Structures are given as C-alpha cells and as structure tokens.
Amino acid sequence: MAVDRSDIAKLAELARLAISENTADEVARSISDVLALVDQLQAVNTDGVAPMAHPLDAIQRLRADVVTEPDQRERFQAIAPATQDGLYLVPQVID
Amino acid sequence: MHQLTIAELVKGLRNKDFSSTELTRHYLDRIARLDPVYNSFITPTPELALQQAAEADRRLAAGNAPLLCGVPIAHKDIFCTDGIRTSCASKMLDNFIAPYNATIVENYLADGVITLGKTNMDEFAMGSSNETSFYGPVKNPWATDCVPGGSSGGSAAAVAAHLAPAATASDTGGSIRQPAALCGLTGIKPTYGRVSRWGMIAFASSLDQAGLLTRTAEDAALLLNTMASYDAKDSTCIERDVPDYTATLNNSLKGLKIGVPREYFGEGLNADTAARVQDAIKVYESLGASIHEVSLPHTHLAVPAYYVIAPAECSANLSRFDGVRYGYRCENPTDLADLYKRSRTEAFGDEVKRRILVGSYALSAGYYDAYYSKAQKVRRLIRQDFVDAFKQVDVILGPTSPSPAFAFGSKTKDPVAMYLEDIYTIATNLAGLPGLSIPCGLVDNKPVGLQLIGNDFAEGLLLNAAHQFQQATNFHQLTAPGIE
C-alpha cells in the first residue's frame, strides 16, 4: 500500500518524529517501497495458522514477587540530561 | 601474536610464551596504528584492558585461572559495558555511559577475558553494510572501497584486520553471518534464547541474538562455552545446560545428512558465489556426508515478514529514547512534546527513522491484523518449512549472502535492494534456529561465505561440521591483502 505526505505526517506524529517539508515526498516514497515489498504477505493463505510470538513456543516464566534490584537511583540519574532532588527534569507540563 | 587463533593464544599464555599484558599491549598498539584505516572501533579501552590483563596475569600465575583468562576480545557496541560508553553507533547514545554490564560481558569478565574496546556497527543494528553508523562507515579489510557487511561490520573488520582475535556480535536478520561472509570469518548466531539478551540494546526482541565473529570454528566453540548461559534476568532465555562445544569438534561427518534448499540457489545469487558453494558441497561429500535436495517453500516470504516484524518491534523498543532519563536531549525544548520529538528527530539517523515509521504503520489502528498479525502467521509457516526439512536432514547448507562485499554507496539509495542482502539469513532468525557462516573461497579476491543452519540447539553439530570443513580446507587461513 502506498503512503502519501499526509500519511507520513500522521505516522511521524505517532512516532514522535518530525519530517521536514522538503523530505516528506522522499520519505513517503521509500516507505511505500518497503510496504510494496511487505505486501507480498497478503497473497499467502494463513487461515488456521496461529501467529508465532516465540520460535520455541516458550511460555512466560514467573518469579516470586520479591524485590531483587538494589536502589541505584543516584547511579542511574548521574547519566540523565537533567535531574533535581531525585527527579528527572523536563519542561513544565501543567500550568 | 596477532596471527594466532584463540586456541593458540590459550596455549601460549599457559606455556608462558607471552603474558596477557604483552598480548593485550600488542593488540592495543595495532588498534592505535591501523584502525584509522578501517574505523572498526568506536571506543577502544586501552587503560581498562591493561588493568584487566594485569589481573589476568596474576590469576594465570596463581595457577587456577579459567581457560580463556588473559585472552583479549572486542565487544560490539550494542552490549552494555559498565563505565564505558555504549553508543549502539547512534548520536542518541553518544554520551551514554552504561551503568551495568550485559550478561555476556559479565560472563567473559568472570573468565578473565580482556576487553579491547567497543566495535563499530550500523546504528541500532539496522543495516547490512555498516554505512548507517553515527561514527562513519567501516571499511572491509579485503577491499577498502567495499563494505564489511552489517550490522556487526566493526567486529568483523577488527577480526579480519587482526586488531582483535575475536569479537562479540549480534544477529537480528543476518548481522553476524553476512559480515562474516563478506570479511572471510567464522560467524555463529546461536539458537534464540541460548544466549542471554540482558544488557544488549534491543532492536527486535523476538529476533535479536548475541553471537560471535572468530577466525575459526574451534575459536567460536571455545568462546561460546563462556557466552552461552541461562540467565534469569532475560525471560526469553532458555533454561538448558550448556554443552562443551569443543568436545564434539572432531566427530566424524560420516553419515551426516546435509540438505541443500533449492530456493537458496535461484535468481539473484551471484554465479561465482554459487560455484564456490557447490565446491564446498563436494568437500562435505568427501568427508562422508550425504547431500539431499530439500525445499523451504516459504523462503521468498522471509524478507517481507521480517520487514514487518522487525520494524514493529523496533518502533516499540526505540520509544524509550525520549531524551528524559538518558541519552541525547535537544537544546531548549519548549514543552514536553517538543522535547520528545526534537530529541528523537535530531539524534536518530535516516534508516532508524524509516524503520520506526514502517513499524508505527504496521502497528497502527486498522493495520495490525493486516500486517503484524499476518507476518507472525507467515513466520510460523517459515519455521514449519525448517521443521519439515529437519525430519529428512541434520544440517541445511547454502550461501550466506547473494554476492561478495559490495562498494560503498551502491545500495544506500535503495533500501529494498539493501534489505535483500539478508535474503538467505533472515529465515533462521524468524525460525529461531542457529546459523553459522564460514569462508569457502574467493570471488574477485573477496571472500565468499558458506552458511550452515541447524535444528534448535544444534550449535555443537554446526561447529563440528564447520571445524571439519576447516580441517579439510584453508579458506579460513587466508588473510586480507596488506594485513601484516
């Protein structure tokens, strides 16, 4: 399925990316090429086939509901762009 | 020393032919002197390596050191390394100092293996040519106007140029085997879940698999013994004992049934590459194996299924890169939406953005069933092809890549042409099976890769088959021209 500039704008919003005006056509074309490739899947009969999430059909392991991680807040926040009083700083969200 | 394999280095260290410090210094000198040509390292770690080597020498002198103690290797920059920049070759993580080690890195450190540094790669492992790295492309030591393959191209070039005796790598659609083929190395992608993914920066979680690039199958076996482990921290890791992969290397191949899929020899395969693979089949026959034609009828759907599943998973995995807790943040954001959007737009490269957009499309309302769910159903059909084939044969053999290393820029304008580079490798990721590539000759003085695919957890058999081939041939001993 081909996508156009308005589809790209919508996708970019969903993905939190900005696509500049002068590249929108080129991006739309390359995404359309990829979608043309994957559209081959539509010709396959998959009636009765269960989607495969894990190749070995493994099931999710469960563990005891106990804390195993030590508190490393200072270590992790040392690599953050901006922190204060143990919190991550971002632009004001609520007036 | 840089001509020695890991197996020979282990012996040399034990015999005190050289110390780990001497060996490590030798490799660090080569990296400093020669890597400006290849660009295979993003972050060499000389000080850390020499500290680790001194400690390894102490353990070796004490007499109870693990087998690999004192051996230096390089790590692909997709694996988190405590206190060392882990960039995944992206501007997004250019300033990221990982606060912990990936489990495989931890496994190697526990065995006294030295970290020479972090190798270059395609950004977030997305690419087949190592041209999408924020730190610039890696050059193929066999032909510096050609790509080394991707995404583990830095690991492959470092080993091929003898800047490291081996390197860790990762494979989501062929990213170990294709660079192994293009650089004349042995590359193994184990069974999905055999090796922990904890601390490996996620691209497509149901396909990503850590593995190795080495010069010989014997070295791959030695290193896989340490890399493979059950890890409770990775919930997709399979709880299963790790066999000694070196114990079965010398098993006879008499009676081994090798399947050759007719779909791997069709249109698109370079004729000279096909001829080298046919020569390799004759070697296997001379070793006592029998050759059987098999069919993998859904092969042509592997690339389309992959380019739905991988982008869908990448769009979800890469949503964590939002400029809030770590990584790149844009200057002076006006509000939170602006912070997210500009941080991501300024820090991700074009290929990463393209895949995020395709993934967002495949997962968006109204398209999930048509794309993502459909691709997961086709994925089961692809796996079923292999399940059926492995009822008849023990190993599947074919080319790794459709042609030898290609020139820089020759496929960058056409993403679909680039995606078809992985046409023979992608299906094993979708099916979760182990795959391996070994050199089987040259075309235009560039290496050709032979791919062996095994059933679930058949790494030992693959390494055995590869080792026996390497005992009978010398393609793995060929060195790129100009490598001293």
From TrEMBL, chain A:
Gene3D superfamilies named in the record: Glu-tRNAGln amidotransferase C subunit, N-terminal domain (1.10.20.60)
Record field: catalytic activity: L-aspartyl-tRNA(Asn) + L-glutamine + ATP + H2O = L-asparaginyl-tRNA(Asn) + L-glutamate + ADP + phosphate + 2 H(+); L-glutamyl-tRNA(Gln) + L-glutamine + ATP + H2O = L-glutaminyl-tRNA(Gln) + L-glutamate + ADP + phosphate + H(+)
InterPro entries: Asp/Glu-ADT_sf_sub_c (IPR036113), GatC (IPR003837)
Enzyme class per UniProt: ligase
EC number: 6.3.5.-
Gene Ontology molecular function terms on file: ATP binding; glutaminyl-tRNA synthase (glutamine-hydrolyzing) activity
Self-association state and partner proteins as the record states: Heterotrimer of A, B and C subunits.
Function recorded in the entry: Allows the formation of correctly charged Asn-tRNA(Asn) or Gln-tRNA(Gln) through the transamidation of misacylated Asp-tRNA(Asn) or Glu-tRNA(Gln) in organisms which lack either or both of asparaginyl-tRNA or glutaminyl-tRNA synthetases. The reaction takes place in the presence of glutamine and ATP through an activated phospho-Asp-tRNA(Asn) or phospho-Glu-tRNA(Gln).
Entry similarity comment: Belongs to the GatC family.
Protein known as: Aspartyl/glutamyl-tRNA(Asn/Gln) amidotransferase subunit C
Lineage: Bacteria, Pseudomonadati, Pseudomonadota, Gammaproteobacteria, Cellvibrionales
From TrEMBL, chain B:
Cited InterPro entries: Amidase, Amidase_CS, Amidase_dom, AS_sf, GatA
Recorded catalytic activity of this chain's protein: L-glutamyl-tRNA(Gln) + L-glutamine + ATP + H2O = L-glutaminyl-tRNA(Gln) + L-glutamate + ADP + phosphate + H(+)
GO biological process, one term: translation
Domain Amidase, first and last residues per copy: 22-463
Active-site annotation: K76, S151, S175
Main function: Allows the formation of correctly charged Gln-tRNA(Gln) through the transamidation of misacylated Glu-tRNA(Gln) in organisms which lack glutaminyl-tRNA synthetase. The reaction takes place in the presence of glutamine and ATP through an activated gamma-phospho-Glu-tRNA(Gln).
Protein name as it appears in the record: Glutamyl-tRNA(Gln) amidotransferase subunit A
